[in-house]
Amino acid sequence: MDKIFEQLETLLERYQELQELMSDPEVINDTKRYMAYSKEEADMRDVVAAFKRYKELKQSISDSDEILRETDDAEMQAMAKDEMETSKKELDEVEHNITLLMLPKDPNDDKNIIMEIRGAAGGDEASLFAADLLSMYSKYAEKQGWSFDIIDETDTEVGGYKDVAVMITGTSVYSKLKYENGAHRVQRIPATESQGRVHTSTATVAVMPEYDEVDIDIDPKDIRTDVYRSSGAGGQHINKTSSAVRMTHLPTGIVVAMQDQRSQQQNRQKAMQILKSRVYDYYESQNQSEYDEQRKSAVGTGDRSERIRTYNYPQNRVTDHRIGLSLNKLDRIMNGDLEEIIDALIVDDQTKKLEQIQSGEAKLF
């Protein structure tokens, strides 16, 4: 805690400086500077408000203590004791809140995401499970008030997906769904199983932030673009023109195919958007692996082959293996009620970050 509160006075001084700068006519007339200061001020606002309340409570406790030491009036002492107890209780809550506000923030938390779901081990059953996961996330997105759009898909004859990519847009999407990265395992009796045996299948989920143009610059020479006629639905226009686009990033071998838009230009734009996110995620994953290898203390490895969760249908149970959480409400979770799992993962993440701070392995704010 001492490490956290050492920084707060400096933070408060900077906040006051920013407020003065934002009222300076010269800054107000410089839109770029004003926006930069506004963002910095907004990022500090909550923690500064909490710190100010912390100081008020500390002063209140000090004043109450002084009254208790200096007066013999029973009524005054009773009032001071009540005030002190109330302030101490709130102080504990404010200290905890400040600690969480001061934790290092993921710069991608406010971003929209591209989510890829792929049927993995298990053949047709894996593809059906991929479709079930897609439905689960779609319902969760609806509950959150987010937009959920399929941007690429390869379906299977049994009604599942070999792979499917979706764009999820809204408020702080990545901050909640980043924990879904990994291999998801299902245990259930497939519809085609005549002897009632439980099968185990897997599907993988990849979650990537929607990166802005400034985040990554891909050399056009590193991209091979092929155009072809769409094989999907779309009417005569798509069937008669080469509107579908396939982009290959040569250094990484990452391929993006897009055919859901009516024009080749629209497909090019969407394909490039997805390609940039996948390439950026590829390089970031490499960096994360190097960091984890060196520090061996980071939260999670980002390894998508790692089994993170099991969905057991016979027992109506979902188990998240990373935090040892089991819930006997699989039916509700598959209906999009993911809040309990995601909230538990966020708390676990915060706890591990606090441990890193206390051990000196991570910096604050």
From TrEMBL:
Superkingdom of the source species: Bacteria
Keyword terms: Cytoplasm, Methylation, Protein biosynthesis
Maturation and modification: Methylated by PrmC. Methylation increases the termination efficiency of RF1.
Modified residues (N5-methylglutamine): Q236
Localization in the cell: Cytoplasm
InterPro entries the record matches: PCRF, Pep_chain_release_fac_I, Pep_chain_release_fac_I_sf, Prokaryotic/Mito_RF, RF-1
Keyword Acetylation: no
GO molecular function: translation release factor activity, codon specific
Record-level GO cellular component terms: cytosol
Domain Prokaryotic-type class I peptide chain release factors per the UniProt entry, residue ranges: 229-245
Family: Belongs to the prokaryotic/mitochondrial release factor family.
Role description: Peptide chain release factor 1 directs the termination of translation in response to the peptide chain termination codons UAG and UAA.
PANTHER family tied to this protein: LD18447P (PTHR43804)
NCBIfam families to which the protein is assigned, alphabetical: prfA, PRK00591.1
HAMAP family given in the database record: Rel_fac_1
Name of the protein described by the UniProt record: Peptide chain release factor 1
Species assigned in the record: Companilactobacillus zhachilii
